[in-house]
């Protein structure tokens, strides 16, 4: 099975990370895929659109370093480079944090304008869309690659399938699936699908399978990089390589 997401005529690429449900791992995926691309030498910008519920600053270990956010940019108080914080511990990685104001208008045109402007500075711009509302949708539509994150549980898979179908109808066809929080013995549990069932139900090409890994939870909460040999780190490193177009086998065995 070939699982990659190579694009012809590479230039900077906007990647939107979305899901049909909360808690599936959109922010975790955004942070770790961004770390993975940065580790491969790609200048990477993370843009967090979870207005009022920012978390990427914690996950990247820079919560005390962030001085500005996208809200101040949208209000016209600062320019976008001022709203950008370098992740000092990771070469090539930068973050535009979400505003703390949950009621702020996301203003998709302005956000897409920012992403277009940032293309000249970055190889990859990863947008943690935090979900799909009417305003976030136009941001997703403008992305060259959409990462649909689902867990294998039946509720999450159905919502992922609904969202994926909706996006297809709206001509968002370059979708790839990330199946997250996969436990090695998940087949025993009736509420969970196996990987083939997840892929069949959501109906989009697989880009990666990420195991349930306590390192992911702990390192996310502490803002630390994953230990490189843990199962979660291997899965994200493989996903980053596939985004670059490499044909990398799955990193976990599910029998
Ligand atoms: N593969 C995984 N293994 C273990 N915990 C995970 C995994 N992916 C995400 N988590 C945890 O699940 C919770 C929700 O993840 P998060 O990325 O915030 O979801 P979302 O952004 O979709 O709401 C977090 O506590 C995170 O650490
Ligand atoms: Mg999130």
TrEMBL record:
Full protein name: CobQ/CobB/MinD/ParA nucleotide binding domain protein
Residue stretches making up the CobQ/CobB/MinD/ParA nucleotide binding domain: 15-226
SUPFAM superfamilies found in the cross-reference section: P-loop containing nucleoside triphosphate hydrolases (SSF52540)
Highest taxon, organism lineage: Bacteria
GO MF entry, a single one: ATP binding
PANTHER family in alphabetical order: SEPTUM SITE-DETERMINING PROTEIN MIND HOMOLOG, CHLOROPLASTIC, SEPTUM SITE-DETERMINING PROTEIN MIND HOMOLOG, CHLOROPLASTIC-RELATED
One Pfam family, short name: CbiA
One GO BP: negative regulation of cell division
Any single Gene Ontology cellular-component annotation: cytoplasmic side of plasma membrane
Native source organism of the sequence: [Eubacterium] siraeum DSM 15702
């Amino acid at each position: 099975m070939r699982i990659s997401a190579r694009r012809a005529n590479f230039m900077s690429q906007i990647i939107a990370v979305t899901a049909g449900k909360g808690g599936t791992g959109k922010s975790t995926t955004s942070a770790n895929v961004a770390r993975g691309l940065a580790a491969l030498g790609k200048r990477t910008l993370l843009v967090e659109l979870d207005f009022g519920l920012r978390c990427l600053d914690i996950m990247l270990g820079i919560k005390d370093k962030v001085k500005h956010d996208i809200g101040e940019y949208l209000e016209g108080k600062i320019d976008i480079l001022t709203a950008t914080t370098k992740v000092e511990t990771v070469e090539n990685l930068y973050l535009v944090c979400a505003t703390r104001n949950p009621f702020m208008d996301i203003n998709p045109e302005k956000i897409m304008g920012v992403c277009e402007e940032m293309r000249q500075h970055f190889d990859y711009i990863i947008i943690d869309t935090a979900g799909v509302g009417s305003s976030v949708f136009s941001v997703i539509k403008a992305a060259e690659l959409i990462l649909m994150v689902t867990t294998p549980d039946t509720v999450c898979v159905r919502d992922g399938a609904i969202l994926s179908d909706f996006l297809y109808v709206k001509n968002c066809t370059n979708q790839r699936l990330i199946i997250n929080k996969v436990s090695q013995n998940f087949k025993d549990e009736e509420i969970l699908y196996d990987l083939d069932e997840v892929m069949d139900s959501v109906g989009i090409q697989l880009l990666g399978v990420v195991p349930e890994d306590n390192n992911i939870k702990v390192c996310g909460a502490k803002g630390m990089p994953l230990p490189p040999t843990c199962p979660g780190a291997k899965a994200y490193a493989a996903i980053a390589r596939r985004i670059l177009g490499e044909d990398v086998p799955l990193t976990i065995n599910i029998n």
